[in-house]
Amino acid sequence: MNAAPAGLRRRRAAAQATALCALCACAPPGFDKPEPPDMRPLLQRYESPTGSFDPDDAELVALAVTSFQQLMGETDILARISELLSDVIEPITDVQRPGPEQPDTGSDDPFQLSLSANGYLVATRICPGWTLPPAVDTGNGTARVTATFSEEGLDPVVWGTVSACRYRVEARRIELQPSSERDALHVYWGAAAGRSTLSVLGAIFSLALRADVEGAGLDLDLDVRLAENEALEYLLPLGGGSVVVRANADGSFGVRSVEGSFECDDSFSCVPSGAAGEP
Description:
By secondary structure, this protein is an alpha+beta fold. The chain contains four helices and 13 strands. A hairpin with a 5-residue loop joins strand 8 (about 215-225) and strand 9 (about 230-240).
């Protein structure tokens, strides 16, 4: 979802800044922010997996993870969503709060906002489309995102949806649509939400999307967390609940279940964590 031309970005930024500051300064008594999706059950499943894992199921798990990884690569979905959300929430995470310790610099940057209250931002972005170079055209579809904030900064959950959102990954033409009635995107930024420089490490993406890739329909209904060393952690239904499967960059993977943690190599051999290399 590439950025629009500079002039359009400035006009869009000014409009967003105006709306956002109006909420901050002029919120009426009884003003309520939109209620974000409740991602606490999902966070709990990541922290305390409920499913059982048998090392004999390693090949099945590896096949599922391979499928997820292929979906990520073909659609470049995490990078596209991260780019979109960064554009939306940077006006909130990089806010200026004028005061004795941080005086107003008089910057004409439209993304430099001054926040002093609760509020929210709803942003609609035109998708880049299939043409080269990308053209600003409403026919490319849109992505719509809602972010809420307080005096402390961005709240930890951002959510939104897409409508016939078109973009390219190399030569592949892709169109995204919601796959269900729920919001297509739920994102938990957690601790990253309060940093002036946005970091997505640890962010959880809960996706309910349908991707059309050159006419082939692909389901992107999955939950994934960004982990260290370029690893991705997927939540996989298994063993009467769900387990957390970590896909490492070297092709190995790990599993966290009610029994504990396992380390698995690319030949589907799994051992309890800490036992790898033991005679």
